[in-house]
Specification:
This protein is of the alpha+beta class. It is about 35% helix and about 10% strand. It has 30 helices and 18 strands. Keywords: Dioxygenase, Fatty acid biosynthesis, Fatty acid metabolism, Heme, Iron, Lipid biosynthesis, Lipid metabolism, Metal-binding, Oxidoreductase, Oxylipin biosynthesis, Peroxidase, Plant defense.
Length: about 1000
């Protein structure tokens, strides 16, 4: 495992640890009194600073994003030295600050502007120091050549940055300072900020070596309490002559000349905290005056004599210019204090990641903002009378876009435990180069600025606040609900789909979500049974009066309270983990044992383990449908490896493996987006919208115009955009899990036939296709025949009274469970709101009567008998009971979660956006994805099935059956 991955795992394991009170907090005051509120505020301000970076880039004509401030480096050296004074005061001897101690220092001097302008332009100057105490300890100090900040707090700081971004001419600067800034902060604050800026930037600076630099904000100095620090020139520093007006880089040249003659020396001093009035910690716009707090020398900084114009020195300067200095790169003894400093952590991390191409922000065009507001209000009125799916296609598509934008604002809730208030940390390690060009094994480093985001073990997010209702945990009894409303009396087919569609969605869900369970019998959920009913909870066990099944692991929230958050033991990304495995050990165990890039297959079939179940990335709940999908895409991976090896003979086996994984995972995502989903949601608006997600809009100019007005990504397709989390770190959600409970798709009985003759091969029940039996059936039937048999068969309709009987008495991991009861109980215990609250949480009108579900008289009567009132209807029951729109395979309410999350799964993933490019995938890989789909995969590995595939529909629509010419001779093939 890479060192960076180990650090990520360590950080993940300590995320929920209790936070001890931090030294120095007694001096601080958080916005609205809440560190968590302040953190959310700073996150928003950080995004706004990233927008400032983009605006500056646009105004300056630069090709890349630069620092929001201090963009132009004037001097960068790696060989400076900091030496503490021998007579360092006793109470300042803290941590690395020891008498006579000496440390190497990286130093960067710069102008303060975000524009790389001439040194003669009015501006502040800054210096950033990285004091290298040891391999695991460094301290960053950041200073400016004016004792106070123009901004008293983070909000003022960002407002100033927004007003002045890209102001590169005198008229623009005047407009920013006298018009834009007062609009943001008010006239009085703007006047004070202008005075501070004029005082700091208006002076002529002849040499960096003769300037004094102040921290502006406070920091802790151990038990000595808060200090501000400053760096002032040594007493013997000589003055420089007036600068040349014709030299735009005179400060760099002056320092180069000075260093060619001797060392440049500064004194590092501290000013002690006195009281909140004279030496405020929270207001960076107030100076700590010398008469109140004299500067105490503590160390000397020496930049040694050198020639900064050599190739070695220029290379060092480039390295220094690429560093990200942050005052939070320190230890608890020297924690930054105050509002400005607390904001710096979010701001500097975001700005640095943006500059390095690790984090992104996408401006929303004004036309989209206006259009979506107008559409949202208009459709809000129209939908009271006409739902979106009854509108003309173009209007229906715009209706969905407006709904999705509203849900992005309301229905994305971050559940990750966040750092509040911020904590010091070591300098973040460099990211392994390999992780820039391949998916990690456990989903880390997809977002390079937040490596843990979406990885294995992170919590499920929420689309609406969780609702804990312990008094209704078993009301109504979930077993009664199952028997009265879910139990399949007779099979109800979904005639627009084939059985491969049911296999596909389970294949996908195993890539996306998995709640960890306790081992059977160690920690269980108990459901009381209705009167007169008993249940054997283990195979061959005694009848009991309760139904028992393994409880899920939860994320601890508070002592004595049941968990409301749960971790995903798969990664949240669309990364093919069901095929490739969720961690490095599993992934490597699936590889060709001879060291090749291919997955291990035995004559085209997955090898089986000691339990008889095929060995692959995810083996739970195994049945024949999964055997088909896993085998098909393991073969596809090996085929892609072969063509990559032939096309790029110098590519090593490790690169071939990871490139093939990228290609196959993206192909799977494409198939789901533009083939499976339009098959189960068969409407023109959905088909256009999903193809626009992947390929951009159709050629119809009116549709293009509407999408251009409403959606900033619609004209390119998501793979042509930058990653966009829409303000909330990416994760799949508990509501997403709930709407993908599609077990009615599974039939109880299966017919197999020979694809060549149509001759029946026999019938089997679902129990005969599970676990170790699946591979036996597959090899006995033949891969092509099994695919054909699934292709001509229908799955079940996702509706009430159609839950598979086989799943209502299912043996799994040493338990006998009723999966329909488990589904109901899990949804309740995870705090997913019940159906009516689910509706209102998505902005849909609540139902007032059982009849409003439109489920028919008999079912409505059963609903009324089972539930006391409509507000108690379980979410899964309500979703199954709805009459779906014409062409839909599931309810419109379930579709709303899909509408929100489908594009999110693509837009958040850098390998499906900014890194969906030939440098990562290879040109052949991108071509493979562009020109292949499910039909191509099927024909590549079973070319004999080509004539049975639908002509005008996807591979998930019913196939053409072969009619047998004569009745079968003898009994069924299966023994």
């Amino acid at each position: 495992m890479h060192e960076t991955e180990q650090r990520v795992r360590s950080a993940r394991e300590t995320t929920t640890a209790p936070v001890a009170p931090r030294a120095g907090e007694r001096y601080e005051r958080y916005a609205c009194g809440s560190p968590e509120f302040e953190r959310r505020l700073f996150d928003r301000l950080a995004r706004e600073l990233m927008m400032v970076q983009l605006k500056t880039k646009k105004r300056s004509g630069a090709r890349t994003v630069d620092r929001a401030f201090y963009a132009k480096g004037l001097l960068g050296v790696e060989d400076a030295r900091l030496r503490f004074l021998p007579d360092l005061p006793e109470d300042l001897r803290v941590g690395f600050a020891r008498p006579g101690a000496e440390y190497p220092v990286i130093a960067r001097f710069s102008n303060a502007s975000g524009l790389r302008q001439a040194d003669s332009e009015p501006d502040l100057r800054g210096v950033a120091l990285r004091i290298q105490v040891g391999r695991e300890e460094a301290h960053d100090l950041i200073m400016t050549n004016h004792p106070v900040s123009h901004a008293g707090n983070a909000i003022e700081f960002v407002a100033f940055a927004q007003a002045t971004a890209g102001a590169d001419t005198a008229p623009r600067k005047a407009f920013a300072m006298f018009v834009k800034l007062p609009r943001k902060v008010g006239w009085a604050t703007a006047s004070r900020m202008r005075r501070n800026v004029r005082a700091g930037a208006g002076r002529e600076v002849r040499s960096l070596a003769t300037e004094t630099f102040w921290s502006q904000g406070a920091m802790l100095w151990g038990e000595a309490g808060p200090v501000r620090f400053l760096l002032r020139p040594a007493p013997d520093a000589f003055q420089a002559p007036p600068p040349s007006k014709s030299d735009p880089d005179h400060l760099s040249h002056e320092m180069a000349s000075r260093l060619s003659r001797g060392d440049v020396v500064f004194e590092l001093c501290v000013q002690r905290y006195r009281d909140p009035r004279r030496t405020p910690v929270e207001n960076a716009a107030v100076a700590w005056r010398e008469k109140d707090s004299p500067a105490i020398p503590v160390a000397t900084l020496t930049v040694p004599r050198q020639n900064v114009d050599t190739a070695t020195a220029r290379a060092a300067a480039r390295r220094v210019d690429g560093l990200a200095f942050d005052p939070w790169n320190t230890t608890d003894d020297f924690r930054p204090l105050g509002n400005i400093n607390r904001a710096r952590k979010a701001a500097y991390e975001a700005g640095s990641a943006h500059r390095r191409g690790h984090r992104f922000v996408t401006p929303v065009p004004r036309r989209n903002v206006i259009a979506v507001k107008v559409l949202d209000r208009g459709f809000g009125v129209l939908n009271r009378f006409v739902p979106w799916h009854r509108l003309p296609t173009g209007l229906g598509l715009l209706n969905l876009i407006a709904d999705r934008e509203r849900m992005r604002r309301r229905n994305l809730i971050d559940t990750e435990v966040r750092e509040a208030p911020p904590k010091p940390r070591p300098v973040p390690p460099l990211i392994d180069e390999e992780l820039l060009t391949r998916r990690s094994f456990d989903g880390t480093y997809n977002d390079l600025s937040e490596p843990v985001m979406g990885s294995l073990g992170t919590a499920f997010g929420r689309n609406m606040p969780p609702v804990r209702r312990p008094s209704l945990a078993n009301i109504p009894n979930p077993v009664t609900v199952s028997r009265q409303l879910l139990h399949r009396r007779e099979f109800i087919p979904a005639r627009t789909l084939n059985l491969l569609a049911a296999s596909w969605i389970q294949f996908q869900v195993h890539d996306w979500v998995n709640h960890k369970r306790y081992p059977a019998g160690t920690r269980s959920v108990e459901v009381p049974l209705p009167p007169g009913m008993t249940w054997a909870n283990v195979p061959g066990g005694p009848p009991e009066r309760v139904m028992r099944f393994a409880e899920n692991h939860g994320v601890p929230v508070a002592p004595g309270e049941p968990p409301i958050l749960f971790a995903n033991t798969a990664s949240h990304w669309w990364d093919g983990s069901e095929v490739y495995g969720g961690d490095e050990a599993v992934a490597r165990s699936l590889r060709d044992p001879d060291g090749g890039a291919e997955l291990d297959l035995e004559e085209g079939h997955l090898p089986t383990g000691p339990d008889g179940v095929p060995i692959t990335g995810f083996r739970d709940n195994w049945w024949l449908g999964l055997s088909l999908m896993h085998t098909l895409f393991a073969r596809e991976h090996n085929t892609v490896c072969g063509v990559l090896r032939a096309e790029y003979p110098r590519m090593d086996e490790e690169r071939i493996y990871h490139t093939a994984r990228l290609v196959v995972s993206a192909l799977i995502a494409k198939i789901h987006t533009v083939e499976w989903t339009p098959a189960i949601l068969a409407t023109e608006a959905i088909d256009i919208g999903l193809h626009a997600n992947w390929d951009g809009p159709p050629s119809n100019w009116l549709t293009q115009l509407g999408l251009w007005l409403a959606d900033r990504h619609a004209l390119t397709g998501i793979p042509g955009t930058l990653p966009d989390h829409h303000g909330v770190p990416y994760s799949l959600t508990e509501e997403f899990v709930t709407v993908y409970r599609m077990h009615p798709l599974i039939p109880d009985d299966y017919e197999f036939a020979d694809h060549r003759s149509g001759r029946p091969l026999g019938s089997l029940g679902f129990d005969d296709l599970q676990g170790s039996a699946s591979e036996t059936v597959l090899r006995q039937t033949g891969f092509a025949n099994a695919l054909y048999s699934f292709g001509i068969a229908h799955p079940g309709a996702i509706t009430l009274h159609n839950y598979p009987r086989s799943l209502q008495r299912l043996e799994r991991d040493g338990e006998v469970i009723d999966l329909s009861v488990v589904d109901l109980v899990r949804t309740r215990s995870r705090g997913v709101p019940r159906y009516n609250d689910f509706l209102s949480g998505l902005g849909k009108p609540r139902i007032r009567r059982f009849e409003d579900l439109g489920a028919g008289p008999e079912t409505t009567a059963r609903l009324r008998d089972v539930y006391r009132k409509v507000d108690d209807i379980d979410t899964m029951v309500g979703l199954f009971a709805e009459n779906p729109p014409q062409g839909f395979g599931f309810s419109d309410t379930a579709f709303r979660i899909f509408l929100l999350m489908a594009t999110r799964r693509l837009q958040s993933d850098r390998f499906l956006t900014v890194d969906f490019r030939p440098e990562i995938y290879t040109p052949l890989g991108l071509d493979w994805i562009a020109h292949n789909g499910m039909k191509d995969v099927l024909m590549r590995h079973c070319p004999e099935l080509a004539s049975f595939l639908p002509r005008e529909a996807s591979a998930f629509a019913p196939w053409r059956p072969t009619l047998p010419e004569e009745p079968p001779i003898g009994g069924p093939k299966f023994s």
